[in-house]
Write a structure and sequence with these properties.
243 residues, alpha/beta, six-stranded antiparallel β-sheet, binds flavin-adenine dinucleotide
Length: 243
């Protein structure tokens, strides 16, 4: 893994998906270190003095851009004090600081089995670099994305998912939306919440699959227990647990 470095970045774009979910693109002042799909960064809004200052208050966000991209994408939901500051203070042209890469939630192909990516809401973010980075899937093993959101406007990164559906060998999407999906959605979503049954239906044999779970803590714990009850080995369940 690369040693984390601190980099000043300028906000280059902000997309509002709702009044509390945003995608932000950051243009780094220097070349980004190598990172792996699934890793995260620390983002600080206040300025940092690289000649020896303290690292300011920060929060962690999964990197949602490809390792080959010259900019970085993150997506966040307003949850508390810090993310509210992000909503109020981030604007195009503003400088922020990031340090990266961090984390052991690294998404890769399973050598002899299928991969199941389970995302709750903005928990989709760590899976996006994997989908962007994989232009083929030589062994053709099944890769399933089981993605649940509350409202259809929160089905973010639709372009990346539609592209993967068209081009990534073995890739399937199982999308769920608690409220009725809008007709302008880029892909259809079944009405309802994510369930352990939906996750199991996405596999051909759950005991041979590798599962990556990303999203709120309660979701992770529920599905981790559900998978273990279905005889899935704990070594095949990887989690990216958010506070
Ligand atoms: C591996 C990982 C990846 C994540 N990726 C994303 C992502 O891609 N998108 C996303 O929206 N969220 C992500 N999160 C969650 C995100 O980091 C925030 O915790 C979440 O947005 C909470 O909102 P907040 O920081 O505004 O809440 P706040 O109320 O400001 O703080 C939430 C928690 O942060 C801690 N905290 C409070 N004050 C401080 C402080 N001064 N310094 C440091 N910590 C403090 C406390 O544990 C507090 O309970 C991720 C979390 C993890 C662990």
């Amino acid at each position: 893994m690369s040693t984390p470095i601190k980099i000043k970045c300028t906000v280059s774009s902000i997309d509002a998906h709702s009044d509390s979910v945003f995608t932000v693109r950051l243009k780094p002042a220097r070349r980004l270190p190598r990172f792996k799909p699934g890793q995260f960064l620390h983002l600080a809004i206040d300025s940092y003095d690289p000649t020896g200052g303290y690292w300011p208050e920060s929060r962690v966000f999964s990197i949602a851009s490809a390792p080959f991209d010259s900019e970085i994408t993150i997506a966040y939901a307003v949850k508390g004090k810090f993310t509210l500051r992000m909503k109020e203070e981030l604007e195009v042209g503003k400088d922020v600081w990031v340090k990266l890469p961090y984390g052991h939630f690294v998404i890769s192909y399973a050598p002899d089995g299928e991969v199941v990516l389970v995302a709750g809401g903005t928990g989709i973010t760590p899976f996006i670099p994997f989908l962007l980075n994989e232009t083929n899937n030589p062994s053709g093993e099944k890769i399933s994305l089981v993605y649940g959101v509350r409202r259809s406007d929160l089905l973010i990164f639709g372009d990346v998912i539609v592209d993967a559906l068209a081009n990534l060998n073995g890739f399937s999407l199982y999308a769920f939306c608690e409220e009725r999906a809008n007709s302008d959605s880029q892909f259809s979503a079944e009405q309802g919440g994510l369930t352990i049954d939906a996750i199991l239906r996405a596999t051909t044999d759950p005991t041979k699959a590798v599962f990556y779970l990303s999203g709120p803590v309660e979701m992770i714990n529920t599905f981790k227990d559900g998978l273990k009850d279905t005889e899935v080995s704990e070594t095949k369940i990887h989690i990216d647990e958010w506070e």
